Amino acid sequence: MSIELETSRLRLRQFRGSDFERYSQMLADPEIMKYISQGSPLNRDEAWNNLALLLGHWKLKGYGLWAVELKQNNQLIGRIGLYNPAGWPGTEVGWMLMRAYWGNGYAKEGAAKAAQYAFETLKLHKLISIIHPENTASIRVAEHLGGIYKNPVIIDGTRASLYGINQEAFQQKIQHSEPETSDNKPNKISINK
Fold first, then answer.
1. What is the CB neighbour count within 10 angstroms for residue 87?
2. Which residues are 126's β-sheet partners?
3. How many domains does the chain have?
4. Could you tell me the CATH number of the domain that includes residue 74?
5. Who's near 39: CB < 8 A, 6+ residues apart?
6. Checking DSSP bridges between strand 10-13 and strand 76-83, what pairing results, if any?
7. Is residue 134 included in any domain, yes or no?
8. Which residues, listed in sequence order, are joined to residue 83 by a DSSP beta bridge?
9. Separation of alpha carbons 85 and 116, rounded Å
10. Domain that residue 96 falls in
11. Phi and psi dihedrals of 75, rounded to 5?
């Protein structure tokens, strides 16, 4: 089963083998990886294992992180979605974009769509985001989704902050936020079996 989400500017779709080169370049960027896991870039083998992990998460959980592409040119720009491996403190909504696409509201837009899917389709009542305490840009995205700082956590030996996002706070935040574009086309969810 393949689940695709769309916003006015983004398509969240399943990763494909043809995404590997750009995906591995993203994970090799020290600035992007600074606040992820151990804070170090990944080599090609590690990037391959990471991509396989993401695809396996879909198989085991029925949801996961999507490849994010710009609808205007079908260019892969990162990953956004849901993550909850064994031992994780809850279902996380997460995001990672290539540097060239930072500061355009894409993380907020895509993460809001993923959270909407979690609440409306998966019927989850709460989500989390695990964020390095110095990653102010990601903290702003979590707060945009209604996230509230809960407590410090140690994930894979690294200090992080846990933000909680409940469905009611998410709905209130999203209803009162400005639309990402003036385009009034409805967002859509496609499920292909």
1. 7
2. 166
3. 1
4. 3.40.630.30
5. 33, 132, 158
6. unpaired
7. yes
8. 92
9. 20
10. 2-100+107-176
11. -85, 125
Tell me if 158 is assigned to some domain: yes
pLDDT band at 156 (very low <50, low <70, confident <90, very high): confident
Within a 13 Å sphere around the CA of 49, how many CA atoms are in the beta-carbon half?
5
In a domain, 15, yes or no: yes
* Angle at CA of residue 177, ends 163 and 110, nearest 5°: 60
* 22 in any annotated domain: yes
The pTM of this model reads: 0.91
According to DSSP H, which parts of 34-105 are helical? 44-61
Q: Where are the alpha helices (DSSP H) in 83-166?
A: 106-120, 136-144
Tens of pLDDT, residues 69-128: 999 999 999 999 999 999 999 999 999 999 999 999 999 999 999 999 999 999 999 999
DSSP letter (8 states) at residue 132: -
- For the segment 15-70, what is each residue's pLDDT rounded down to a tens digit? 999 999 999 999 999 999 999 998 999 999 999 999 999 999 999 999 999 999 99
Amino acid at 20: F
Partners of 154 in the β-ladder: 159
> What is the C-alpha to C-alpha distance for residues 155 and 152, in angstroms, rounded to an integer?
10
Strand partners, 3: 191
